[in-house]
Amino acid sequence: MAEQVAIAPVRKTVRVKVPIAHAFEVFTSGLTRWWPHDHGVGKKPIRKVLMEPRLGGRWLEISADGTETTVATITLWEPPHRFAMLWQVNAQWQPDAAMKSEVDVRFTSDGPDATDVELVHHKFETMGAEAGASMRKDVDGGWPGLIARFVAEAERSRH
Amino acid sequence: MAYGNALAVLADPTRRKVFERLRNGPRAVGALAEGLPVSRPAVSQHLKALKDAGLVEERSEGVRRIYSLRREGLRELREWLDSFWGDALDAFKLEAETSHKKTPRSR
User: Of A23, A39, A138, which has the smallest distance from its Cβ to B88's Cβ?
Assistant: First the structure.
């Protein structure tokens, strides 16, 4: 096996003022209700973004013409505390079933009405040094196409 | 929304050029106008627009006005542009909290 140098994880947290069960449910089963639909890797335009809420379930994009694209596959399922998934997207932001960086999401309740959500995207080194570094930079920072979004917004708000 | 203004202001190519010149460090209007195909008063107008959008700040040095980039304004713009999981988590928070308020669960 080729030696892999670990690439630092990307860690993001958010605090939501809702009970843990609700937070977990919205994040997973409710994915299509909040996922920015311009953040997709499959065929555009996206009609729905689904998560099959179970071990082995897929994160699926369904385009307007019905094309299904797998974005991720759930490898750990512990509702309402944690789930993890293989992020099956390559450095060019194309769906790629061979990709194995991982997204691990943990929910921790702080009393009955608040939940801390911690998202860790890691194992970028499994993509190879260069591709892994590129993916890391993208998910920590911008999403490809944000520049286009910038330009569109700039042009729209100019008028 | 600060970033909206910043985007609108940077959509103008000449203004963007003025803005980019400030990346090399603080400058007076004269130095910024050098080599640009517009008049000095026009550059002043562009600087005013950049300042109003929070992207540039000015200070007086004797009779001269020195312009520089405003880090905070850039950060706001950058944060808007540059966050994939950050964006996603913000959207998630909004939906989780809104839907929770709409259907309060008794406990």
Answer: A39
Range of the domain at B34: 2-102
Q: Which of B11, B83, B85 shows the shortest C-beta gap to A121?
A: B85
Nearest to B81 by CA among A155, A145, A37, A146: A146
- Amino acid occupying residue A146: L
Determine how many CB atoms are found less than 10 A away from the CB of residue A141: 16
B-chain CB neighbours of A138 within 8 Å are 84
CATH number, domain with residue B37: 1.10.10.10
Side by side, the strands of the sheet bearing A68-78 are A10-16, A115-122, A101-109, A82-87, A68-78, A58-63, A46-51
Does A144 sit behind a cis peptide bond, omega within 30 degrees of 0 on the bond before it? Answer: no
Give me the helix-helix angle, B40-52 and B13-21, nearest 10°.
80
**Could you give all domains of chain A from N- to C-terminal order, each with its CATH number?**
10-158 (3.30.530.20)
Local confidence pLDDT in tens for the 159 residues of chain A:
555 788 989 888 888 888 899 899 888 998 888 887 777 788 878 899 999 999 999 999 999 999 999 999 999 999 999 999 999 999 888 899 999 999 999 999 999 989 998 889 999 999 999 999 888 887 876 544 444 444 444 445 443
The answer to whether the CB atoms of A22 and B11 lie below 8 A apart is no
Say if residue B41 is preceded by a cis peptide, omega within 30 of 0: no
What are the Cα distances from residue A73, in Å, to A55, A100, B33?
A: 8, 10, 55
